[in-house]
Amino acid sequence: MELPANLEPVDAWREIRAELRRVLGESTYSIWIAPLEVKAFEGSALLLDAPPATRAWVAKRFGRILETCASGVLGQQIRVAVEGTGGRAMDPRAEFLATTDNLNPRYSFDQFIIGETNHMAHAASLAVAEMPGQAYNPLFLHAPPGLGKTHLLHAIGNYVTAFGSATRVRYTTVEAFTNHFIKALGSRSVDHFKQTYRAVDVLLIDDVQFLASKARTEEEFFHTFNALYENGLQLVLTCDRLPSALVSAEERLRERFEARLVADIRPPDFHTRVAILRKRAMLDRLALTDQAVLDAIADRVTENVRALEGALIRVVAYHSLTGRPIDLDLAMTVLDTMYPQPSTHAPSIGAIQSAVATHYDVAVSEMVSASRAARIAWPRQVAIYLSRELTTTPLQAIGDAFGGRNHATVLHACKRVSDRLAGDQHTTAELEELRTGIAGKRADRRN
Hints:
Blueprint: H1 9-24, H2 26-33, E1 37-42, E2 45-50, H3 52-74, E3 79-84, H4 119-130, E4 139-142, H5 149-163, E5 169-173, H6 174-187, H7 190-198, E6 202-206, H8 215-230, E7 234-239, H9 251-257, E8 261-264, H10 270-283, H11 291-300, H12 305-322, H13 328-338, H14 349-360, H15 364-367, H16 374-390, H17 395-401, H18 407-423, H19 425-446
Parallel strand pairs: 2-3, 4-7, 4-8, 5-6, 6-7
Antiparallel strand pairs: 1-2
Helix pairs in contact: 1-2, 1-3, 4-5, 6-7, 10-11, 10-12, 11-13, 12-13, 14-16, 16-18, 17-18, 18-19
């Protein structure tokens, strides 16, 4: 098939570009497609000219959409080839292979369930994967264990490996980095160690919190970080706490971690938990006919995605061992054993106020007063937070118990405490101590 007789190659390319702009969006089009030019149009083959630095990426990432749009515009099957100016010029670093041995292929963006509590981290990770070194650098993903930050880290690596052609990717944990560095010191191969982590385009580092208190490793990590960052190469780090909470790490490292984007992941809401379970069931090809099974698991297991999926696995395992159908009755049997319901004997708000007041050495009368003094405000916020967590009292009734405050004030107090819990281990331990004390007093009264 030939190019339509009434259409010149340049005119054809103009129409194809308009379709590409519509399909890809202005941002993607302007970065990757706008620099392309027609080199030749021979029969049903369109040959495009691309800058050497982006040729391989455009060919791999956009080859199929180029052919689809060209074929659609011209009404016939078109093959598209992308070449660089001056022939087959390639990035001189292409001799290096992507280091993907440690990447889990099951962790992809397609398999990541997006919800209100993780959408920012997902969007930032995808942007980094599509444009390494140009979007958010460094990207710091922070979340408690089991909420998906490692999934996103592997997803970035898998995406770049699939679409980045010669782009070099290395994934490591801080523990592996430390062990490798110690071995390099012992074998006098530090130069090779440096090359391993610095001769990459994308470095993915998991569990940065374990870097603390390792002086020589931290020094090497700092120089590796700088070497990549100053050359515009992408760094992505995960941690179970905010950079500011890494109190044992050097200030210069904490500052670099906070230099661009810090994206957090919070526990998923109920609907997201159900979606995660549904996806897990689909991947494992589980024939579930009772939606109530997933709803029951999602209602009971709330804080950790790994535990959520683990509960589903236990239900399926119990089904396999006993031959019982996977229904709500079986799910509740497993859940009541592994994840028992919390006690229905909730503490009173008065008991919570008394326990918090004692812990912080303030009076209950001060907590329910109009005072905004710092020494009163924080204990009040903690007591409000625990009242919402440990009781079923409506927000307005909680506000009434704290001096007639409205429900917006209650929500604000809960958010302040949640924010501090996300990045401060001391606060986490403090609230756990309070919960234990309140539960103990409740048990004593029942006995």
